[in-house]
Amino acid sequence: MALPAASAGADPGTAALLSIEAISLRFGGLKALSDVSFHVRNGELFSIIGPNGAGKTSMLNCISGRYTPSEGRVVFDGQDVTRLKPNRRAAIGIGRTFQNLALFSHMSVLDNIMVGRHHLLKNNFLTGALYWIGGAQKEELEHRRKVEEVIDFLDIQHVRKAAAGTLSYGLRKRVELARAVALEPKLILLDEPMAGMNLEEKEDMARYIVDLNEEWGMTIIMIEHDMGVVMDISHRVMVLDFGRKLVEGEPAEVLADPHVRKAYLGEDDLDEAAPAAMTA
Predict the structure, then answer these.
(1) Which string of DSSP letters, residue by residue, matches 6-47?
(2) Residue 9 predicted with pLDDT over 70
(3) Whole-number Å distance between alpha carbons of 214 and 171
(4) What CA–CA distance (Å, rounded) separates 278 from 260?
(5) What strand order describes the sheet that includes 45-49?
(6) Which residue in 124, 130, 141, 226 has a CA-CA distance of 20 to 30 Å to 21?
(7) Whole-structure pTM value
C-alpha cells in the first residue's frame, strides 16, 4: 500500500500539548489502565497500538472525558482537565471519532458536520435576543463556510445533501472525521479510523490524516490495527499491554522491540510493516 511517509513531526523540544500523568482506570475489580504516563507534543501524529482489550479506547475515553480516571491527571494545553466533562473538553479543543460510527443516520451529511460546530455558537440565555437580531445570520454564514472547507478537503461534496445512513461504510467514516474536524480542535482523537475499509479507502484516509497533521496543523492521537499504516505515518508510537505501557518511541524503535515483535505484530504484519518503517 503506497502511503504518505510521515514528516519529521514536532521538534523534540516542543512543549507537550497533552500530558497523561500516571493514569489508572478501574471498573469495579477490573483494572483497565495501570499507571500509564506519556505526552504528546504539539504537532505530533502519535499512535497507540496493542491487542484487543489492551486499554486503547479506554485511554481515549479518559482524554476526551467520557471516563474519569481512578488515579492520575490529564493535562491539556497547560490545564488540568481530569474532571472536565466531554463538552467542556470539546470547547477547549479536543475532538474525536469513535470506533463504532456515531452519526445521526436520518440527518444529511451537511447537518451532521454542522453538529460538530455547536460549541462555537456565541449566543446564550442572556445575550440571545440581541444576538439573533444582530449577529445570527452572519455567524450562520461563517459556520457554513467553515463546514464547506471541511467538505471540500475530504472530497464529500457529492454526498453533502444525502442522509448519512444511506452512505457506504467508508464514506460514513469520512463524514465522522469531517464532523470532528469541523470542531476546529487542537487535538483530534481517532479511534480506528480505517477499520473495515478496503485498500483504496485506507490509502485515502491515511492521506487525509497526514494532511490534517501537516497542512491543518492538528495534533493527532490515533488507534489503528493496520501496522503498515501506523509505521508509515506516525511520528511516535506507544504500545499498551493489558492496560500497561509496554514501550514508546519512534516507529522503527517500537518495531524492533522483541516483545512487540513477538507478541503484538505477528509475522505477517512484520513483513508488511518493516520495509515501510525502514524507509520512513
Answers:
(1) P---S-TTSPEEEEEEEEEEEETTEEEEEEEEEEEETT-EEE
(2) no
(3) 23
(4) 16
(5) 94-96, 187-191, 219-223, 45-49, 236-241, 244-249
(6) 226
(7) 0.84
The alpha helices in 35-168, defined as continuous H runs, are 56-64, 86-91, 109-115, 128-134, 136-153
Q: What would you measure as the largest C-alpha separation in the chain, in angstroms?
A: 65
Instruction: Kindly report the average pLDDT of the chain as a whole number.
Output: 85
For residue 264, give the C-alpha cell.
Answer: 503484538
Separation of alpha carbons 14 and 41, rounded Å: 6
Percentage helix, strand, coil for the chain under 3-state DSSP, each rounded to 5: 45, 25, 35
Mean pLDDT of 10-15: 69
C-alpha separations of 223 from 96, 153, 191 in Å: 11, 22, 5
Cell digits of residue 265: 505484530
- What 3-state class would DSSP assign to 95? strand
Domain edges within the chain: 1-93+185-280, 108-180
Q: Which CATH superfamily is domain 1-93+185-280 in?
A: P-loop containing nucleotide triphosphate hydrolases (3.40.50.300)
- Amino acid, res. 51: P
pLDDT, tens only, 76-131: 999 999 999 998 999 899 999 887 767 888 999 998 898 877 665 555 444 444 44
